[in-house]
Design brief:
This is Ribose-5-phosphate isomerase. The protein is built from seven helices and eleven strands. It is of the alpha/beta class and 233 residues long. The strands form three sheets. Strands 2-1-3-6 form a four-stranded parallel sheet, with helices on both faces. It has a four-stranded antiparallel sheet with strand order 8-9-7-10. The structure holds D-4-phosphoerythronic acid.
């Protein structure tokens, strides 16, 4: 109950503070906190929302926008040179530097594209998500979207980089085999020792078992077969 109330309060506050009435293009992330973001936006009423277009980050996000009766548009149709005014999304973990682990909902690739297409990215996270360094609260690992045929090679490389027991995310009941993302790919969850803040003072290049967020992100994205990683930094 406390968690749901916290998510809802955070979402309504974020919309109040960051969705300005003059905005016309709004990104909508994925997950359960974003459900409250859309609820808060819809509560503004058509007088405000009818002037806005809403851009999804996957099938769940699309459904939320449509179910709320909001105008559904797509980032693929955004005119060249234009940006979204703001994008709202959740996170799995947030460190003191506002680095994020995202991808708990397996929507990280489109989420990162939409976030990067917005002038302002608003992350809505309840008290559970705050942690001194990434990997201390969210222990399931960094979500990494991969081409299925490369998954074994990526797992090998993650082991070599010091990930503790990286694994392909299994499907939920009703889906035999691996989770398949909205993009037709798989997710590998790769736990690493707690990541230092991106301004980490130690040489966080993995040799001493710890990484700075930016050093790890740079290393992960280079692994052949990796499409995108669930580190926003
Ligand atoms: O997959 C994601 O990155 C989502 O934003 C997700 O991690 C947040 O989920 P929650 O709002 O249900 O905690």
């Amino acid at each position: 109950k406390l968690v749901e109330t916290s998510k809802r309060l955070a979402a309504y506050q974020a919309v109040k503070d960051y969705l300005l009435p003059e905005y016309t293009r709004v990104g909508i992330g994925s997950g359960s906190t974003v459900v409250y973001v859309v609820e808060a936006i819809a509560a503004l009423g058509p007088a405000v929302t009818s002037k806005m277009a809403f851009y999804p980050t996957g099938s769940q996000s699309e459904e939320l926008i449509e179910a709320a009766g909001l105008d559904l548009q797509y980032i693929s149709k955004l005119p060249a040179g234009r940006q979204l005014d703001v994008a709202f999304d959740g996170a799995d973990e947030v460190d003191d530097d506002l680095n994020l682990i995202k991808g708990g909902g397996a929507c990280l690739w489109q989420e990162k594209i939409v976030a990067a297409s917005a002038k302002q990215f608003v992350c809505v996270a309840d008290f559970r998500k705050l942690s001194p360094s990434l990997g201390t609260a969210w222990k399931k690992g960094i979500p990494i979207e991969v081409l299925p045929m490369a998954a074994p090679r990526v797992l090998d490389e993650l082991q070599r980089m010091g990930s503790q027991n990286p694994r392909i995310r299994p499907g939920l009941p009703g889906k035999a085999g691996a989770i398949v993302t909205d993009n037709g790919l798989w997710i590998i969850d790769a736990p690493f020792a707690p990541l230092l803040l991106s301004k980490g003072t130690e040489p966080g290049d993995g040799n001493n078992g710890v990484w700075t967020v930016d050093a790890l992100a740079d290393a992960l994205i280079k692994i052949p077969g990796v499409a995108e990683i669930g580190l926003f930094y």
